[in-house]
Design brief:
- By secondary structure, this protein is an alpha/beta fold.
- The protein has 2 domains: about 110 residues, Aspartate Aminotransferase, domain 1 (Alpha-Beta Complex); about 240 residues, 3-Layer(aba) Sandwich (Aspartate Aminotransferase, domain 2), CATH 3.40.640.
- The chain has 9 helices and 14 strands.
- A hairpin with a 4-residue loop joins strand 6 and strand 7.
- Helix 1 packs across helix 6 and helix 6 crosses helix 7.
- The radius of gyration is 21 Å and the shape is globular.
- The two termini are about 25 Å apart.
- The protein binds pyridoxal-5'-phosphate.
- Pyridoxal-5'-phosphate (PLP) binds next to helix 3.
- The site of pyridoxal-5'-phosphate has 12 residues, from helix 3.
């Protein structure tokens, strides 16, 4: 069972599925981008043509997310992991930050922050293997905290903050890698949003940072590398050094694709529809079950299991033969995980569920 071009349904958590229309356009523009006589890969990042690509990408992202004028958009490198360091280095003015640890990524960010100041773990869901989002309506926020940090959608465990924590007036910083552009967000509620694009937006190698202007500081410690200052990149509009130029171009195509679909509200509606098909099946199945508390479920990453390791392995293997790829859960959780990002067509989810029905009949 394969689609156009022999492509299969790809449920990878990241790098992940991209819209076929975007890949087709990239293909068509690969050798000669808009009569420039060269590929975007071969083009100077100082050229007028490229300047137009990056400026249009930023403008389209601003339009999609309704980003206020007092926020900067940065296209950076270093993986989302580098943001675990850049956030505390740049934002810890008092040297204190509060972390809500709801999974492996938040934990890594918390551990990294400890190197630069006092990081407090103010809530966690580790007691139940990160299968829920803790109540964050009245946490013990540190008086001198520079920010409160969350990972908004937990890619590995399949949980999502459906209500933002009450930060009691402190700045909120969010890692949005695996839910970026999956639904509308009110950017005003955040001081900084960071996202690796390889989950929902583009090829690995680009990090998008949306940062409120007043947080872009000059007075950083002497030792701070130039490349790790937001100010360096902000002053030069993400062109301080060679940016991940081709990746940004693909992100730009994805932004156009989202605009054509009707923007983030339309995208959210489609994502809810897809997720509901899968969750409804899981809730009614006698063989499979979801691993996350219902009110914490992610629209993007759906982990599930059977009660037998053997059946899990068999399912993953047989699904592969049906053209349903990369359904193995993260090594720290086991079982299965279906990542159903923006670019996963509804037919992909329907095919998965119909295979699960068949598998259940054959194995119970
Ligand atoms: C994938 C992921 C990361 C890690 O991203 P890298 O680009 O590999 O550093 C961090 N946070 C979240 C939420 C992720 O999904």
């Amino acid at each position: 069972m394969s689609n156009k071009y022999g492509r299969f349904y790809n449920f990878s958590a990241g790098p992940a599925v991209l819209p076929v229309e975007v890949l087709e356009q990239a293909r068509d523009e690969m050798l000669n981008y808009k009569n420039s006589g060269m590929s975007v890969m071969e083009m100077s990042h100082r050229s007028k043509t490229y300047d137009n690509i990056i400026k249009t990408a930023e403008a389209d992202l601003r339009e999609l997310m309704n980003i206020p004028d007092n926020y900067k958009v940065l296209f950076l490198q270093g993986g989302d992991h580098l943001q675990f360091s850049m956030v505390p280095i740049n934002l810890m003015k008092n040297g204190v930050a509060d972390y809500i640890v709801t999974g492996q990524w938040a934990k890594k960010a918390y551990d990294e922050a400890k190197k630069y100041g006092k990081a407090n773990k103010i809530a966690s869901s580790e007691d139940k293997t990160f299968s829920y989002i803790p109540d964050c309506s009245n946490l013990n926020i540190s008086e001198d905290a520079d920010y409160v940090y969350i990972c908004e959608n937990n890619t590995i465990y399949g949980t999502k903050f459906h209500t933002l924590p009450n930060t009691k007036g402190k700045d909120l910083v969010a890692d949005m890698s695996s839910c970026f552009l999956s639904e509308p967000v009110d950017v005003n509620k955040y001081a900084l949003i960071h996202a690796g694009v390889q989950k929902n937006v583009g090829p690995a190698g680009v990090q998008i940072v949306i940062i409120r202007e007043d947080l872009i500081r000059e007075d950083l410690p002497e030792w701070c590398p130039t490349m790790l200052k937001y100010k360096t990149h902000s002053d030069k509009e993400s062109l301080y050094n060679t940016p991940p130029a081709y990746g940004i171009y693909i992100c730009g195509l994805v932004f156009k694709w989202l605009q054509k679909l009707g923007g983030l509200s339309a995208m959210k509606e489609m994502n809810e529809k897809k997720a509901k098909i899968l969750y409804d099946f899981l809730d009614n199945s006698k063989l499979f079950r979801g691993t996350v508390e219902k009110n914490s479920r992610s629209l993007m990453n759906v982990p599930f299991v059977t009660d037998s390791e053997e059946l899990n392995a068999k399912f993953i293997e047989e699904a592969k033969n049906e053209g349903l790829l990369q359904l193995k859960g993260h090594r720290s959780v086991g079982g299965m995980r279906a990542s159903i990002y923006n670019a996963m067509p509804i037919d992909g989810v329907l095919s998965l569920v119909s295979f699960m029905e068949k598998f259940e009949k054959q194995n119970s």
